[in-house]
Amino acid sequence: MTSESETCELSVVVASADGTATLRECLAALEAACRGIDAEIIVVDASGAEAAAAACEEFPGVRRSVLPQGSLVPILWGAGLREARGRVVAFTIAQCVVDEGWARAMLEGIRSGAAGVGGRLDLRKGSPATVRATFYLRYSAWLAAPRGVVREIAGDNAAYDRQALDAAQDRLTAGFWEVDVHARFRQLGRQLLLHPGATARFGGDLTLGSMASLRFAHGKHSGAFRVEQGIRARWQMVVGAPLVPAVLFVRVARRVARVPAHWPGFLSAIGAFLVLATAWAAGEAIGGLTAPPKLREALRAA
To answer: Terminus of the chain with fewer CB atoms < 10 Å: N or C?
Structure first.
């Protein structure tokens, strides 16, 4: 670990927004993965839980900062990024537990010239239905993802070259929203890479109500972003909203079908999946309908 005035090789920003059941395991795994590397671990906590503070205190090298309860994960990542001193900055969440070779795999990918490196995500055994539904809705694209250059990586398990992030600074005014930043990278001709050695496993104690609220909030941002970028018209976001849960279900089912071991876990979480998909669709529609013409200027002024 480094002193506060130094730069370091790797900064890891952990967003702790809700559910602290796996935070201690998350930090223990990160410390093991970063052993022998000039690294720092920053927890940005908006859980409002004493357990989060207690977990961080077990790891003297971990820095913790607190944001208001209810802050979304991209806002927490943005706050951590401002504190980070690493030449490479990685992002994850309290519900993810990384493999031992994770940090070195991320650094290897950045050294190869990529602006950002992601890893495969898997589901922790014994996860309840809401956690399984959240996992398949958010991460099914990375269940069996191949190694190499890709269009997107999951921000919950990703690392970025700091100079590349600085070049995309105009996309970081309202936190770190990875889809927004990735779009800027593509404009700049930079590549994203998926590394098979950077696996993280998702778990936790999430409730259906809290996750539906988060999916709605993230969907609202997505809808506003799509309208602002000209990807969709407002009327398309609203008219298409009733179809979105079915479209998401079919898309995810096809991905899960390529990994047969996950099929039972997905089928047994269909109810929770549809609730979360509906929350996302409703958020997108409202975000698209209510977004001002110049969303980014509005966000800067907020």
So the answer is: C
Q: What is the pTM of this model?
A: 0.87
Residues 276, 133: contact at Cβ < 8 Å? yes
Does the pLDDT value for residue 229 go beyond 70?
Answer: no
For the chain, the domain total comes to: 2
What are the tokens at 63?
Answer: 């820095």
Nearest to 72 by CA among 196, 180, 189, 216: 216
**Is position 245 within any domain?**
yes
Nearest CA to 218 among 73, 80, 43?
73
CATH number, domain at 95? 3.90.550.10
Beta bridge partner(s), residue 192: 116, 150
161 and 256 inside one domain: no
Which uninterrupted H or E stretch holds 253? Answer: helix 244-257
Q: Is 218 within 8 Å of 280 (Cβ atoms)?
A: yes
Task: Quote the CA–CA distance of 175 and 157 in Å, as a whole number.
Answer: 16
**SS3 (DSSP) at 72:** coil
- The amino acid occupying position 90 is A
pLDDT of residue 299: 41
Are residues 194 and 226 located together in one domain of the fold? no
Q: What length is written for the chain? A: 302
Task: Give the pLDDT score at 302.
Answer: 37
